[in-house]
Amino acid sequence: MDFTWSAELIEFRDELTQVIQQWRTPELLKEYRENHGAAGPLISEFQAELNRRGWSRMCWPEEYGGRALNPLYQFVYVETMEYWGMPYGNLTYTSVAPALLEHASEEQKKEYLPGIWEGRLRFAIGYSEPNAGSDLASLRTRAVRDGDDWIIQGQKIWTSGAEVATHVWLAARTDPDAPRHQGISMIIVPVDAPGVTVRPLWTMSGVRTNETFYDNVRVPYSNLVGPLNGGWTIIMHALNHERVGLSTTGNLAVHFDDAVRYLREHRPEALADPHVRRRLAEIKLELLKHRALAIRNAVTIAGGGIKPQEASMTKIHGSELRYSLSNSLMDLLGRYGGLSRETGELAPAEGSFERTWRASPILRFGGGANELQRTIIATRGLGMPR
Amino acid sequence: MNLDPSETQVLLRDTLRSFLANELPFDQVRACEKEGRADAELWGQLREHGWLATPFPSSLGGGGAGLVEAGLLVEELARRAAVVPIVEALSCGAALARCGGERGAELVRGLIEGAITPVPAVLESSDRFDAIAAEAAGDGSLRAEKYFVDYAGFATHHLVAARRGGETGLYLVDASHPAIKVEPHATIGRTPQAVVRYDAAPAERVAGEDGYDCLVQVARALCTVQIVASMQVSLDQTVAYTSVREQFGRPIGTFQAVQHHVANMATEVESVRLLAYEALDSLDRGSATAERIAIAKAAASRAVPEVTMLGHQLHGGQGYIEENDLYFFTLRGKDRSLAWGTADECLEIVAREIEKPTDWL
Ligand SMILES: Cc1cc2nc3c(=O)[nH]c(=O)nc-3n(C[C@H](O)[C@H](O)[C@H](O)COP(=O)(O)OP(=O)(O)OC[C@H]3O[C@@H](n4cnc5c(N)ncnc54)[C@H](O)[C@@H]3O)c2cc1C
Q1: Of the candidates A135, A203, A343, which has its C-beta nearest B247's C-beta?
Q2: I need a labelling partner for B48 at 20 to 30 A (CA). Which of A210, A320, A343, B26 fits?
Q3: How far apart are CA B173 and CA B157, in angstroms?
Q4: Is the Cβ–Cβ distance between B295 and B350 less than 8 Å?
Q5: In angstroms, rounded to a whole number, what is the distance separating the alpha carbons of residues B304 and B235?
Q6: A244 has a pLDDT exceeding 70
Q7: Rounded to an integer, what distance in angstroms lies between the CA atom of residue B313 and that of residue A363?
Q8: How confident is the model over A355-373, as pLDDT tens digits?
């Protein structure tokens, strides 16, 4: 056993942190916040810097411009970016790119991968439908072949980022007569294709997501990724990656550090209170449990596998910790804890605990509801009868 | 013993319930949230219909009922996420009626008739009820900074907690006086709140230490009922939604995991509801203790985020968007859990008397 990071990884983390410090200006953070994930001028420059250093695709194979580094580099990269709240391509980077690398044709890889690492191409994920959420395999959006084209008809919901995306990574039913899991295909749909409509849905976290409608949308047949009717395996693979990307410790741990700093600077008498310190210690303990699970998961992936039960444990623990941690911090801060960013200076850590609390439902049902994840741990992980 | 509302209480509750169902669409609440204002129209209606008079003695023009009835009103309003200072005004009224003497009685009449809408201004930057530091000067002027004042901008008067000669009392300040500055906050509950600065504002002493205690206890107990309402709506909506939402070819409410979550939610709501109304009943009977009210508030404050988060988990994406009404109760619930004493502050009160023998029957 060896629980230490290699010197190279630490060196990488430190270098990345340094670069982040140079770029992480209030202006950039504001741009990130207000553009809802679209790259404005500052973020584009930052992205270019990451590309120049070869970081944004360092784990990709060499033939696609990568350096084929150990996937732990990507783990450290994402953790560090999440800790500092910096943009790095997010789901396009952690979920769609790995799926393309694994399943797309050579031409498709040439067409899309450079645009992804340059930040030119942004994918919204189009799996969910109004009646296909937890039960994703019941999705009904149809794609019918018409000569060299697909004609797509249907509706998706929760297509996050579609308002700023260039493409939708769309799951469509291509064989309605086959068993549910065997009639689904993955098709890349440009958002600007005629017949695509994007309608906003505003969430209680303040973040936007969308409904997307596809009315006789025509895209080339060659936009099919992977085998015809072989979409389910691709989705499951991408979802496992997504779960890892959604369960970082960094964006939770930053709240702990922010809380300690805030208390030290603004409420030293509270920080001296043994009760407050005990509560913070309890939060720290849960964060370190989460870090342990996340690293376990990352090391398994780096070893070339993925264990669904490990991804599930990390996802459950992370999503529930997002709530309990922000809830505890708000309680510790009393009525200050309820102040939102718009309040201004009086709001602790720019209202980030309150904001995270409001955002904490999503990961408990998104990316596969926690009930379903618990079943995965029991059946696939522990071999219990179904 | 009777743990259910009486016939009159049911009538009161149902009348208000159907009134609100007709008169207060949730879009009206959304508009208030968006514009950061109180619902003046509804406040006027509540007064016209005499609901604000309910818990006050008939001798003052009140309805002659008690704080249990006040709780029923508060609960109904919270179930519609109404943006009105009901807890604030009624707790001021209770403190004035019980501890304000002649002047207090006159002010309660003013509240009932619509001449004044008073709200408490208690907390300071310390955010503690037991650390009021504002000093009321002997010449009747007040310099103070009050934090987290709910409905400060909407109220006509503030009932400010301040000290004079070592005693904390309640001081009435006309909110329209130029020596008062109101700086609005944005909060998770999305109801109006502000920091208020009193720069030598004329202040009239209307109650002493007992008035201050009464104000805090009544507000704490009524706030507990607001929390109960948040939990109840979240539970009701979740039961209804999971019974019809189908996935995997059946209503999700048929999954055991879902039923267990709902059962946990219901157990929390039921136990906290009983504690909340027991607290109000004890206030009516004069047998209330700070410790038991603190227990009710602590229990509610701990339960509400758990219950509402489970509600969200079971609603999936549908409960997460603001087109759905669920978020009102989640956000208001958390806001109220921090108001009038967090769980921690209330548990401190309980802890202080931990060796005192308890009557368990
Ligand atoms: C803000 C937001 C962003 C999203 N972004 C995307 C995106 O970019 N792309 C995309 O494709 N999707 C996205 N999603 C969709 C997300 O993945 C779904 O919300 C999720 O799959 C759950 O589906 P549902 O919302 O329909 O909930 P439902 O399937 O209706 O489930 C609701 C709840 O029922 C319970 N439940 C369901 N089935 C079972 C069972 N078998 N056993 C026990 N309990 C069960 C669970 O508690 C579950 O949380 C997003 C959702 C939101 C809210």
Answers
A1: A135
A2: B26
A3: 6
A4: yes
A5: 11
A6: no
A7: 9
A8: 999 999 999 999 889 999 9
Angle, CA of B17, B22 and B28, to the nearest 5°? 105
User: CA B263, CA A201: separation in Å to the nearest integer?
Assistant: 31
ipTM above 0.85, yes or no: yes
List pLDDT tens digits, range A141-180.
Answer: 999 999 999 999 999 999 999 998 999 999 999 999 999 9
Mutation site for B-interface testing, chosen from A140, A331, A364 by largest number of B Cβ within 10 Å: A331
> What residues of A are labeled active site?
242
Q: Does B189 contact chain A (CB < 8 Å)?
A: yes
Query: What are the backbone dihedrals phi and psi of residue A215, each rounded to the nearest 5 degrees, phi first?
Result: -115, 100
DSSP string computed for B149-194: EETTTT-SEEEEEEEETTEEEEEEEETT-TTEEEEEE-BTT-S-EE
Which of B86, B127, B119 is closest to B338 using CA atoms?
B127
pLDDT at A243 over 70: no
- Residue identified by tokens 């207000």 is A34
Query: What's the CA-to-centroid distance between A367 and ligand 1, angstroms?
Result: 7
Give residue A302 CA to ligand 1 midpoint distance, Å. 28
Residues of chain B with pLDDT under 70: none
pLDDT of residue A65: 82
Per the CB < 8 Å rule, is A365 touching B312?
yes
